[in-house]
């Protein structure tokens, strides 16, 4: 966000600086209503953000200045960087997600003869691999619940632990993938590079993943719901190794991103590799990626992936604007002053304040990316006053947002998991539809990550370079 003008506020609100919080507060209140109504979708949040900005116009003394400030804030570099990265990442993940990579990973587990807790552990590792490849926790939950959940029940995995493994793998990928929306926005809000953030985050993500893997290995077993013959029949119908070569483009993007390549260059490399590997190996024709339709339109997996990022991009622009209006009205200066007098007097205290702010935002907003967009600019200003490395704060924002938020009953991934379980149960009588209380205790990655980051803050682990 732009720096505040010294000595005065850029916008004057009737009632003083506290009133400048109305645009963002309206969004948060409206979002809570959406959650309570079971309609916590990004499209609804866009309307909430628009409503908040419109209400702010009724409370400002100079409407013309307020209106012009909205336009200038929409051009904020933080939001622009995130939007551009999301479009490219969406196109790349769309290609991979529609290539059949989930079915290929199922085939690997089947051929390795994994059963019981071994299958649950295998699902966790596979979900981690897939989520890091495509960069979407929600997409991982949808794909793996559709295929791995019924297959795992057949092979003797505990249903609750199995869903915990899928959700945990989704959280890991959302947390670490260079193409993940949370990774992109955590770096963008701290004005730093994606590759460096991913490199510095490895120690946290891998530590939480290792602890989770041990727990799944011990607690993931159950009893097969079907005889072995029926189990094999189900797996034969879903497992297909054809798309395994699509791991090559995903690996190229990850290596390029953490090796210092510009993020857009790494994504273009991955897209180019996918467009070579896919048609060359017969996984998909180029027409599946992009084609002209008979109706005079265009379609394809790359287009679908990019367009899927438009709602979150629009909401990001609106929320960055609401934050900017709050700063221009003077509220952020009041909040920063209070934090500096209380929590943020030391480096550790500042980090704890950031953890508290992002935790509260995630409790209010069911989409973790939006929570980071809301808190990120404030966290960026806080870290600068204490000279905290941008990687460190990007990691605090992202790891907290990929910890307990994956356990919340109104989180997008939990809602999606329940919907897919019901759909699968309609096809297979043996599939159990779990309650939130049954599966939440097994989301080990989310359970482990939050206290792990509190330890990192209290001890200073990783503080020097992230």
List the helices and strands and how they pair.
Elements: H1 22-36, H2 42-59, H3 63-74, H4 77-97, H5 101-111, H6 116-134, H7 137-154, H8 159-176, H9 181-189, H10 194-219, H11 228-238, H12 247-258, H13 263-281, H14 286-289, E1 291-292, E2 298-299, H15 301-308, H16 310-328, H17 331-341, H18 347-364, H19 368-386, H20 390-401, H21 412-427, H22 436-439, H23 444-459
Antiparallel strand pairs: 1-2
What is this entry, summarized?
With 466 residues, the chain is mainly α.
What does this structure look like?
With 466 residues, this protein is mainly alpha-helical. Among the domains are: 1-75 and 311-330, no CATH class; 81-308, no CATH class. Helices cover 72% and strands 1% of the residues. The protein has 23 helices and two strands. The protein has helices at 22-36, 42-59, 63-74, 77-97, 101-111, 116-134, 137-154, 159-176, 181-189, 194-219, 228-238, 247-258, 263-281, 286-289, 301-308, 310-328, 331-341, 347-364, 368-386, 390-401, 412-427, 436-439, 444-459; strands at residues 291-292, 298-299. Strands 1-2 form a two-stranded antiparallel ribbon. Helix 7 (137-154) packs antiparallel against helix 8 (159-176), helix 9 (181-189) runs parallel beside helix 19 (368-386) and helix 12 (247-258) runs antiparallel to helix 13. The two termini are 22 Å apart. The model is unreliable at 1-8 (pLDDT under 50). Residues 4-220 form the Na+/H+ antiporter NhaC-like C-terminal domain. The chain crosses the membrane at residues 18-36, 42-60, 81-101, 121-144, 151-172, 204-221, 242-261, 267-286, 307-332, 352-375, 396-420, 440-461. GO terms for molecular function: antiporter activity. This is Na+/H+ antiporter NhaC-like C-terminal domain-containing protein. Keywords: Antiport, Cell membrane, Membrane, Transmembrane, Transmembrane helix, Transport.
């Amino acid at each position: 966000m732009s720096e505040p003008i010294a000595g005065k506020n850029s916008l004057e609100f009737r009632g003083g600086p506290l009133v400048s919080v109305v645009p963002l507060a309206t969004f948060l209140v409206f979002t809570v209503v959406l959650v309570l109504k079971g309609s916590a979708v990004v499209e609804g949040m866009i309307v909430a953000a628009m409503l908040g900005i419109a209400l702010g116009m009724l409370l400002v003394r100079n409407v013309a200045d307020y209106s012009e400030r909205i336009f200038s804030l929409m051009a904020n570099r933080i939001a622009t960087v995130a939007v551009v990265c999301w479009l490219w990442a969406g196109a790349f993940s769309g290609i991979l997600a529609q290539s059949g990579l989930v079915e290929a990973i199922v085939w690997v587990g089947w051929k390795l003869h994994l059963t019981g807790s071994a299958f649950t552990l295998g699902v966790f590792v596979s979900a981690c691999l897939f989520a890091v490849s495509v960069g979407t926790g929600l997409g991982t939950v949808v794909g793996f619940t559709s295929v791995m959940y019924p297959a795992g029940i057949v092979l003797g995995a505990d249903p609750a632990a199995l869903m915990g493994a899928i959700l945990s793998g989704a959280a890991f990928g959302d947390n670490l993938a260079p193409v993940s929306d949370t990774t992109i926005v955590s770096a963008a809000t701290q004005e730093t590079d994606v590759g460096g953030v991913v490199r510095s985050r490895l120690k946290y993500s891998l530590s939480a993943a290792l602890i989770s893997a041990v727990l799944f290995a011990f607690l993931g077993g159950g009893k097969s719901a079907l005889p072995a013959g029926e189990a094999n029949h189900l797996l034969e119908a879903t497992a297909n190794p054809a798309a395994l070569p699509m791991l090559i483009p995903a690996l190229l993007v990850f290596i390029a991103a953490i090796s210092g390549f510009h993020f857009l260059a790494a994504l273009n490399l991955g897209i180019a590799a996918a467009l070579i590997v896919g048609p060359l190996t017969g996984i998909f024709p180029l027409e599946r990626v992009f084609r002209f339709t008979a109706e005079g339109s265009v379609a394809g997996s790359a287009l679908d992936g990019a367009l899927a990022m438009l709602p979150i991009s629009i909401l990001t622009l609106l929320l960055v604007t609401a934050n900017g209006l709050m700063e221009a009205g003077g509220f952020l200066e009041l909040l920063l002053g209070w934090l500096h007098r209380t929590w943020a007097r030391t480096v550790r205290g500042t980090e704890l304040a950031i953890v508290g702010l992002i935790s509260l935002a995630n409790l209010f907003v069911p989409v973790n990316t939006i929570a980071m967009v809301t808190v990120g600019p404030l966290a960026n200003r806080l870290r600068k006053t204490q000279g905290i490395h941008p990687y460190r704060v990007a990691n605090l924002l992202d790891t907290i947002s990929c910890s307990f938020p994956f356990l919340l009953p109104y989180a997008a991934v939990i809602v999606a998991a329940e919907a897919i379980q019901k759909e699968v149960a309609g096809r297979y009588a043996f599939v159990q539809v779990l309650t939130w209380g049954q599966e939440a205790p097994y989301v080990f990655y989310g359970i482990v990550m939050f206290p792990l980051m509190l330890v990192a803050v209290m001890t200073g682990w990783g503080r020097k370079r992230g």
